[in-house]
Backbone:
C-alpha cells in the first residue's frame, strides 16, 4: 500500500522526524571510546519514552530477522551494516558505528540512519561515509513531483558507483507513513523514468548504504545483524523526506 500524507499531517511528520534527529544527534555527541552499545540503547529508550513516542523496533518481527527485535536502535559496528542488534560491546578507538532508528509519534513514523567513527577515523572510512551522504543528497535532489522512483534510485546509484563501491539491491529505501515500512521500494540503483510517480505528500525513507568491497551480506548468529561477507567495513545514511510541490522536505534533518 502507498500512503499519501494529507497536508494536515505534515506538522506531525516534522515532529516525529525531529525526535529521530534529536536521538541520533544526542548519541553521536555522547558516544565515545568505551561507550557500550547497550548504553546507547538505554539512552534511546529514555528519549523515545520521554517524548511519548513508540519505537518501531522493539516488537518488530519481520521474516528476515529472528524477531521480535527487542531493542530501540540498531547499532552496527565496522563490518555490520544493517539491523545491528545492540549487545554488550564497548566501542574501541576507530570503530565505525552506524545508528538506525524509527519511531512513531502522533501517528506518523520517521526513520533515519547515520554512520560515524568513534575516535581516530581511517581515511577509507571517512570516504565511504561521505559517499553515502553524497548519494543521499543526490537522491533527495531527485525526489520531486514529476520524477519517478527510478530517478531517485538512479541518482543514488550513480554517486555510489562513481565512488567505486558495489551496490546491494536486496535492501534499500521505502515508503513510510503510519507505519515504518511501506511501498514503494526504493532501490539504491535503478533506471531513470521508471516506477511509481512522485507526488506531494508521498513520504519516503531514502537510505544508501555500502560495503567497501562486496555486495553480499551474511546474517550474524544473533539472527539480526547483517554483516559484509568479506569482513570489510560499511556505511549507511538515511533520511525521511516528504515530497512537496517543488521538491522534498527532510523530516529528519540534524544540525550535524
Ligand atoms: Mg532506518
Ligand atoms: Mg529505512
Residues:
Amino acid at each position: 500500500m502507498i500512503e499519501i500524507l494529507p497536508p494536515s499531517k505534515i506538522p506531525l511528520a516534522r515532529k516525529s522526524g525531529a525526535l529521530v534527529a534529536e536521538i541520533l544527534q544526542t548519541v553521536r555527541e555522547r558516544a565515545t571510546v568505551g561507550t557500550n552499545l547497550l548504553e546507547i540503547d538505554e539512552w534511546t529508550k529514555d528519549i523515545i519514552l520521554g517524548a511519548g513516542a513508540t519505537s518501531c523496533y522493539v516488537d518488530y518481527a519481520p521474516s528476515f530477522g529472528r524477531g521480535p527485535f527487542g531493542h530501540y536502535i540498531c547499532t552496527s559496528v565496522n563490518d555490520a551494516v544493517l539491523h545491528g542488534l545492540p549487545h554488550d560491546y564497548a566501542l574501541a578507538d576507530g570503530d565505525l558505528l552506524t545508528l538506525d532508528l524509527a519511531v512513531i509519534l502522533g501517528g506518523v513514523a520517521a526513520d533515519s540512519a547515520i554512520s560515524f567513527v568513534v575516535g581516530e577515523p581511517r581515511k577509507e572510512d571517512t570516504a565511504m561515509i561521505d559517499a553515502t551522504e553524497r548519494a543521499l543528497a543526490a537522491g533527495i535532489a531527485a525526489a520531486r513531483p514529476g520524477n519517478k522512483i527510478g530517478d531517485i534510485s538512479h541518482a543514488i546509484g550513480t554517486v555510489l558507483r562513481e565512488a567505486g563501491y558495489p551496490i546491494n539491491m536486496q535492501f534499500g529505501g521505502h515508503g513510510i507513513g503510519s507505519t515504518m515500512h511501506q511501498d514503494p521500494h526504493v532501490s539504491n540503483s535503478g533506471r531513470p523514468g521508471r516506477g511509481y510517480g512522485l507526488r506531494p505528500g508521498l513520504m519516503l525513507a531514502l537510505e544508501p548504504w555500502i560495503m567497501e568491497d562486496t555486495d553480499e551480506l551474511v546474517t550474524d548468529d544473533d539472527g539480526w545483524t547483517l554483516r559484509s561477507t568479506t569482513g570489510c567495513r560499511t556505511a549507511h545514511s538515511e533520511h525521511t523526506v516528504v515530497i512537496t510541490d517543488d521538491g522534498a522536505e527532510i523530516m529528519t534533518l540534524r544540525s550535524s
